[in-house]
Fold this protein.
Amino acid sequence: MTECLSMDFVSAIESNLYQFYEFTARRGELELVSETDFSWVRNKSSAWPNWIFRLNPEQLMREEFLDYLAVRIKKQEIPSYLITLEPEHANEFYVRAEKYGLRQIMRWTGMAIMKDEYLTA
């Protein structure tokens, strides 16, 4: 019961976070795109919130999908920051992602990030 309840909280927090990105994009008249397996926001005048979110967790473990993301990032068609929950097999995911030039730059363990903790590429 506790595991189910905590997962509901995780899902609610994730949903609220994504809704915040979408709200910010709409209010700021930023580019907001919903694709089949992810959504993204681009802000041409600032680094935030140029992020990809709502990533399909099943696709994250597929090398073809990681390659697809990496190619689109290199072409600057989509932002270079991905926001996602860690997949069930996190170590395997990070090894696969690094093969395509993707790497973890931040791990949030709470709901806040300090400005000096935000790393730029």
Observations:
- The longest strand covers residues 31-34.
